[in-house]
């Protein structure tokens, strides 16, 4: 199933968190926090301004991004988990 986010929304797939820390300690799944890093899968057309013009998106499909801990809405498509969030919830693009 394909999905295209509307307006200034972005479809993101979370990247898996690393299982070990610097000291070599293995963290069990129950104690792990959800990663705040992901890959953009799809983007909308852009934000519609009050005068009707469309402001293009700053991110594109394939970008690795950082986002806030409680950003977006979790969705499940074809047994895969994604997040749909507004472009404003993105903290930065990793280069």
Describe the structure.
The protein has 95 residues and is an all-beta fold. The chain has a single domain (9-16, 33-94), classed as Roll (10 Kd Chaperonin, Protein Cpn10, Chain O), CATH 2.30.33. It is 0% helix and 40% strand. The chain is built from no helices and 8 strands. It has strands at residues 9-14, 37-43, 47-48, 54-55, 64-67, 73-77, 80-86, 90-94. It has a 6-stranded antiparallel beta sheet, with no helix packed on it. It has a two-stranded antiparallel sheet with strand order 3-4. The protein is globular and about 55 Å long. The two termini are 29 Å apart.
Q: Calculate Rg over CA atoms.
A: 15 Å
Shape: globular
- N-to-C span: 29 Å
Tell me the number of helical segments per DSSP (H or I, 4 or more residues long).
Answer: 0
Number of domains: 1
H-E string = EEEEEEEE
Strand residue content: 35-45%
What characterizes the major β-sheet?
6 strands, antiparallel
Would you give the CATH topology? 10 Kd Chaperonin, Protein Cpn10, Chain O
Helix content, binned percent: under 10%
Q: Class in CATH?
A: Mainly Beta
Short description:
The chain has 95 residues and is mainly β. 0% of the residues lie in helices and 40% in strands.
Layout: helices, strands, pairs:
Elements: E1 9-14, E2 37-43, E3 47-48, E4 54-55, E5 64-67, E6 73-77, E7 80-86, E8 90-94
Antiparallel strand pairs: 1-2, 1-7, 2-5, 3-4, 5-8, 6-7
Keywords:
globular, 95 residues, single chain, mainly beta, two-stranded antiparallel ribbon, 10 Kd Chaperonin, Protein Cpn10, Chain O
């Amino acid at each position: 199933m394909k999905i295209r986010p509307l307006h200034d929304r972005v479809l993101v797939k979370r990247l898996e968190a690393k299982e070990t820390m610097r000291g070599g300690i293995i963290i069990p799944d129950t104690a792990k926090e959800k990663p705040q890093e992901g890959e953009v899968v799809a983007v909308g057309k852009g934000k519609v301004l009050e005068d009707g013009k469309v402001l293009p998106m700053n991110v594109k499909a394939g970008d690795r991004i950082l986002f806030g801990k409680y950003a977006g809405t979790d969705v499940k498509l074809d047994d895969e988990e994604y997040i749909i969030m507004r472009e404003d919830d993105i903290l930065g693009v990793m280069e």
